[in-house]
């Protein structure tokens, strides 16, 4: 696939997915203190503002009010998924649709989760740079074991992303379009804060 207008800097949006209820953590994991008085969601969102992206948005769920307060000082759009219990697919669909309504000029969207404490602007920029240099429409993150988010999708996949629903997210789309996919190393991407034990281990190892 050859991308149109490949010689200009693409207009990229970053869509953070934060609509879960943190059932395994027992409290909103996005509000956990991480560094320099920053919460987890403040840390990962602030990294987004140090990238080439032209807009940043967050899909919220049951903790919409709490996350709105936590991000009040950030110029970020929040889209509440009132059907968050249907799974990540519904959040991606809502988020992409809402982001395009606000920014129809977007050429690509990066989907990112909010429980990867090592997510940095350098990695997000590397997704964009690899998209430009490789002309691949899907750029995903390669962990030590496995692959996943954050992942960049060119606009040719916007309609497919808006059709997602349920708990699967975009993984099925990535498998289906594997010939169009290229990956970028994210050595610490496998570390996510899903349970209290994960958070305690992260504090002991990295803080």
TrEMBL record:
GO molecular function: nucleotidyltransferase activity
Superkingdom of origin: Bacteria
Gene3D superfamilies membership: Spore Coat Polysaccharide Biosynthesis Protein SpsA, Chain A
Claim: Lipoprotein is one of the keywords in the record: no
Keyword list, A-Z: Nucleotidyltransferase, Transferase
Keyword flag Nucleotidyltransferase: yes
Domain MobA-like NTP transferase: 15-178
PANTHER family tied to this protein: MOLYBDENUM COFACTOR CYTIDYLYLTRANSFERASE (PTHR43777)
Protein name, as recorded: Molybdenum cofactor cytidylyltransferase
